[in-house]
Request: fold
Amino acid sequence: MTSPTTPQVLGAAARGNLPRTLLTALAPLTWGTVYVVTTELLPPGHPLFAGLARALPAGLIALAFTRTMPSGAWWGKAAVLGVLNIGLLFPLLFVAAERLPGGVAGTLAAAQPLIVVVLAVAVLRQRLSAWHLLWGAVGLAGVGLVVIGPSAAIDTVGVMAGLGSAATMALGVTLTKRWGRPAGVTPTTFAGWQLTAGGLFLMPLTCFVEGAPPPIGAAAALGYLWLGVAGGLISFVLWFRGIAALPVTSVAVLVLLSPLVATILGAVLLAQTFGPVQLVGFGLSLAAIVAGQLPAPTARPGGSA
Reply:
């Protein structure tokens, strides 16, 4: 009786992770609605307030239910992760969404898997994965084909915000994987710590930069509610659960789903064009997402892959 080879074992592990992967993918699927909600429902010119409204109420609700606070070194770690994953990420995303077409903003965010591959070497001491680097580049190219058209407007501040959001999220994901989660702390508690820390970071910044909150009508209230509950608390609980259970490079490539959802919503709700080039881009992006969940091919003793 022959024992299973390493690729067979890793392949079986990847199949075993499928339920966790599908649950984790719900987070970037939900985040894909941020662009259309921001442009169609929220008052313009208040990206910091939008980030604050998305983060702090959701974080306080989570803490009220779990009634668990950090202890020891986790006060500092939760603050750092909250600033990276929430406090810096949210306003940068809203700035990019306001100043750039959703497709351009989504393409910049799609650079995150490539950054994570590099950070995994520096922070997690993993070997550089040419497999995940290749498919990260393929996914970025695919998203670019899907969402960038010949008339795409480029705004310097928006581009810097989009790249900044990709970098902060990549570092936050990598540090979350390195530090893990304290024993006995649920994903809801973990998300609540970070949402609260990010919201508290944004509160004085919002007051200083934007002043009084904007008038909030029924449509804006619905938009903030969606972003806070579905796009904030629920999605980050699933996201942090996935980071703890899955390889960090596999989680990072799931972010490609976000601009794909944004493009679909733009085509369905805003009558934006969608043609053969976009279909090719979709195929490349989906191939990159699937390949990112698989183990890298390994060389066999005979030299063949």
The CA atoms of residues 10 and 295 lie 6 Å apart. The longest helix spans residues 218-245.
